[in-house]
Write a sequence for this structure.
C-alpha cells in the first residue's frame, strides 16, 4: 500500500470541515512571508514556498499555521520524515486541529508506520465524526496490517454517519477478496465501478479484469433467462402493449442488474423454411449489439438494434436459432504484414475475434464470424466487421493503431425450447434445428474423410501409431470399416485396410475383437476369422456377439442393465440373443434427459440409436425422436475444440472442413464420432 495515500492526494483534507484552513486566515502585515509562501505553493513553486515559510518561522517559530504549510510543502517534495517533525511541533501548540492530525496520519501512512497512522486517523474521526477521510484512512491501514475483518467493521460502523465514497467500496473489495468471500467482493467491485472516482483508471481496469475472470460467466439458469428474453422481445407485439420481455426480466436473477459494461451481441439464424417470410433486404443471419451498465441494459439495446435490422419480421424469426455472445476482456494487438496478409502480434487463437473503432463506432468481428467466413487475414476480419456495421470495408484504417483481440462467452439455443448449449471459445454459429438422413450422411462422410487426413502420402499413420494404444488404433480401423460399408466408399475401404494392416500379429483381447469386427464389416468370411478370436459357435452371427466380444472374449450372460452400467455391459446386453429391452430403454430414457456435454458422449448416442432400432413400439418411437434431436445438437454444437474449428458451414449439421496441420483433432475421438454417426444414419435411413 506504499504511496496509496497519494492516489487521493491530500484532497482528504478538504473533507475535514471543523474550521477554516489556517492558510486562509486574515493576512497581517507581519505574515507577509507566509502570504508569499502560500501563493508560491498554490502555483506549484515548492522551492520558493519553502524558503518563504522558513523565513516566517525564523520570526515566529511557534506558528502552527506556518508549520502546517511547511509540512505540506515537505510532503509534496517527498521529505516525509521532515514533514512529520514539523507536524509534531505544530501539534504541541494546537492539539485539536483535525487538519494537522489528518496530514500527520497521511505522512505516517506514506512512511509505512501504519499503526501510528491508524491512531492519528482515529483522532481525526473523534474530532470530525462526520468526515469520510479518517474512516477510509483507518480502513487502508488495517488492510495493510492484514486485519480484514477490522476493515469491514470500521467501514460498517461508520456507513450511517459518513458520506458515500467509492474508495470505501474499493477497500471493501480488497478485504472481501482476501477473506475468500467472493460474492461480497463482487458486490463491492460493482458498486465501485458504478461511480468510479476521477483518475482511478488503473483501479477500474483492475476490478473489471477481476470480474471477468471470477464472476463474468453466466450460470445455465442465467443463460436460459437471456435466451428467453431475446425470444420474447422478438415476438409479434400489439402497439402500446406491455413488452412481453419485461416479464422475463421481472423474475431475472440479480446478476442481470448489477454493474456490467461488457458488450452483448445477439444473433438470429433463420431456418431455411422461414426465410421466405423475411422482408426486403433482410439477411438470414441478423445481429444486434448493445452495451450499458448492466446485462439487462445491454440485452435490451441488442434486441432493439436487432429489431431495426432490414427486413426483420417476428414471424420469420420465431423458429430461429438464437446465439448470445458476451464480450470478454480485450487485449491490444499490433498489426504486422506477412507477405500479402495482415497478422496480429501476438497471434490470434482460433477462438478470438478482433475489434477496433471506425468512424467513431466500435466494430467487431466475433470469433464465430471469423470461423464461419473462414477469415485468417486480420485485415479481412476488420473489413468484415465494418461491412456488418454498414460502413465501408476500409473504414477501419482510421483505427488500425488500436486493434484488440477478444474472446466471448457464447451460447446458443438451436430452436425454441432447446436448452442453451455453450460454444467452446466462441465457436460456430447455430446449426439447422434437425438432423436428416442427408445431413448425417454428409457428416459421416466428412468425419471419415477427416480421419483419412491422418494418413500421409507415404502411408504412415501420423499420430495414430505413435500416440494411440493398440485398442484405439483398432477402433480407428473399425470406424473406417463401418463408414466404408455404409457409404460404399473405396477410399475409406483402402484407409481401413491400411490401418488394420499396420496392427501387429499379437494383440490384446479388446484390440483383437475390434480387428475382427472391422474385417467382418468389410465382408470377410466369419469362419475365416476364427484364428483371431478362437473357435466361434456354429451359425453365430458376429454382429450379435459384438458388445460381448468388445468387453470380454468370454461369454457373458444377458440380464437387467443397471443405471450405472458401463459401455461394456450395455453393448453386451445389446448383443445378447434376446436383449433386455425394458432395461435398455429405461437406461436410454434416463440418460437422454440430460443434454450431451462438450465432447459428446458419442458411444451413448450410438447406443440410443441401436436400442431405438430394436424396439418398434411407442417407447422406441419416442427414443428415435430423441436420437434425431440429440444428433442434430451433438453434430454441430458438442464437438471437442479440435473438431469444432474444422466446421465448414455450421448451419449444415455436422459438416467439417479439413484443415491439415491447423489443429490436430484426436483420431480416437473422431473414430467414436464416426461409429455413432453410422448407427444414427442406419436408424434414420430405415
Amino acid at each position: 500500500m506504499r504511496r496509496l495515500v497519494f492516489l487521493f492526494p491530500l484532497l482528504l483534507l478538504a473533507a475535514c470541515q471543523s474550521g477554516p484552513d489556517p492558510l486562509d486566515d486574515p493576512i497581517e502585515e507581519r505574515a507577509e512571508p507566509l502570504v508569499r509562501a502560500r501563493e508560491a505553493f498554490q502555483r506549484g513553486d515548492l522551492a520558493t514556498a519553502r524558503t518563504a515559510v522558513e523565513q516566517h518561522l525564523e520570526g515566529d517559530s511557534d506558528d502552527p499555521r506556518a508549520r502546517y504549510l511547511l509540512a505540506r510543502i515537505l510532503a509534496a517534495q517527498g521529505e516525509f520524515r521532515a514533514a512529520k517533525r514539523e507536524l509534531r511541533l505544530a501539534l504541541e501548540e494546537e492539539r485539536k486541529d483535525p487538519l494537522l492530525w489528518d496530514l500527520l496520519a497521511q505522512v505516517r501512512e506514506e512512511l509505512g508506520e501504519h499503526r501510528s497512522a491508524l491512531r492519528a486517523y482515529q483522532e481525526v474521526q473523534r474530532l470530525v465524526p462526520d468526515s469520510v477521510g479518517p474512516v477510509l484512512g483507518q480502513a487502508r491501514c488495517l488492510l495493510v496490517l492484514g486485519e480484514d475483518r477490522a476493515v469491514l467493521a470500521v467501514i460498517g460502523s461508520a456507513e450511517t454517519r459518513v458520506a458515500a465514497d467509492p474508495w470505501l467500496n474499493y477497500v471493501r473489495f480488497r478485504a472481501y477478496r482476501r477473506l475468500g468471500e467472493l460474492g461480497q467482493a463482487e458486490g463491492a467491485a460493482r458498486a465501485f465501478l458504478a461511480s468510479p472516482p476521477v483518475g482511478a483508471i488503473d483501479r477500474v481496469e483492475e476490478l473489471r479484469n477481476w470480474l471477468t475472470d471470477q464472476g463474468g460467466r453466466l450460470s445455465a439458469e442465467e443463460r436460459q433467462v437471456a435466451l428467453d428474453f431475446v425470444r420474447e422481445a422478438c415476438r409479434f407485439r400489439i402497439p402500446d402493449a406491455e413488452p412481453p420481455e419485461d416479464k422475463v426480466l421481472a423474475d431475472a436473477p440479480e446478476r442481470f442488474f448489477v454493474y456490467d459494461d461488457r458488450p452483448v451481441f445477439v444473433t438470429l439464424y433463420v431456418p431455411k423454411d422461414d426465410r421466405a417470410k423475411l422482408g426486403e433486404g433482410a439477411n438470414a443471419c441478423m445481429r444486434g449489439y448493445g452495451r450499458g451498465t448492466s446485462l439487462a441494459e445491454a440485452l435490451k439495446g441488442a434486441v432493439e438494434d436487432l429489431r431495426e435490422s432490414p427486413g426483420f419480421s417476428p414471424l420469420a424469426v420465431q423458429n430461429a436459432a438464437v446465439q448470445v455472445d458476451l464480450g470478454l476482456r480485450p487485449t491490444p494487438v499490433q498489426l504486422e504484414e506477412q507477405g500479402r496478409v495482415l497478422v496480429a502480434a501476438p497471434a490470434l487463437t482460433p477462438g478470438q475475434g478482433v475489434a477496433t473503432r471506425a468512424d467513431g463506432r466500435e466494430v467487431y468481428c466475433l470469433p464465430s464470424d471469423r470461423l464461419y467466413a473462414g477469415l485468417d487475414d486480420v485485415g479481412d476480419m476488420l473489413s468484415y466487421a465494418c461491412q456488418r456495421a454498414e460502413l465501408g470495408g476500409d473504414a477501419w484504417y482510421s483505427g488500425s493503431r488500436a486493434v484488440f483481440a477478444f474472446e466471448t462467452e457464447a451460447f446458443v439455443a438451436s430452436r425454441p425450447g432447446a436448452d442453451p448449449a455453450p460454444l467452446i471459445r466462441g465457436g460456430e454459429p447455430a446449426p439447422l434445428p434437425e438432423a436428416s438422413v442427408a445431413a448425417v450422411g454428409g457428416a459421416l462422410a466428412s468425419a471419415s474423410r477427416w480421419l483419412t487426413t491422418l494418413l500421409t502420402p507415404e502411408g504412415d499413420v501420423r499420430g495414430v501409431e505413435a500416440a494411440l494404444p493398440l485398442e484405439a488404433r483398432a477402433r480407428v480401423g473399425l470406424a473406417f470399416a463401418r463408414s466404408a460399408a455404409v457409404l460404399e466408399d473405396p477410399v475409406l475401404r483402402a484407409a481401413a485396410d491400411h490401418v488394420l494392416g499396420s496392427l501387429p500379429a499379437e494383440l490384446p483381447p479388446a484390440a483383437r475383437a475390434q480387428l475382427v469386427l472391422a474385417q467382418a464389416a468389410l465382408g470377410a468370411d466369419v469362419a475365416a476369422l476364427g484364428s483371431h478370436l478362437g473357435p466361434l459357435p456354429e451359425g453365430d452371427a458376429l454382429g450379435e456377439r459384438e458388445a460381448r466380444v468388445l468387453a470380454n472374449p468370454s461369454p457373458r450372460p444377458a440380464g437387467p442393465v443397471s443405471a450405472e452400467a458401463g459401455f461394456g455391459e450395455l453393448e453386451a446386453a445389446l448383443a445378447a440373443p434376446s436383449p433386455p429391452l425394458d432395461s435398455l430403454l429405461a437406461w436410454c430414457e434416463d440418460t437422454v434427459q440430460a443434454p450431451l456435454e462438450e465432447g459428446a458422449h458419442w458411444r451413448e448416442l450410438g447406443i440410443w440409436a441401436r436400442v431405438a432400432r430394436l424396439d418398434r413400439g411407442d417407447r422406441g418411437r419416442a427414443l428415435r425422436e430423441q436420437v434425431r434431436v440429440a444428433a442434430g445438437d451433438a453434430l454441430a454444437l458438442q464437438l471437442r475444440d479440435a473438431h469444432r474449428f474444422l466446421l465448414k458451414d455450421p448451419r449444415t449439421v455436422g459438416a467439417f472442413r479439413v484443415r491439415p496441420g491447423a489443429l490436430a483433432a484426436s483420431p480416437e475421438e473422431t473414430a467414436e464420432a464416426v461409429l455413432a454417426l453410422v448407427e444414427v444414419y442406419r436408424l434414420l435411413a430405415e
Summary: The chain has a mean pLDDT of 76. Strands lie at 264-269, 285-290, 321-327, 331-338, 341-345, 353-358, 361-365, 403-406, 408-413, 421-423. The longest strand covers residues 331-338.
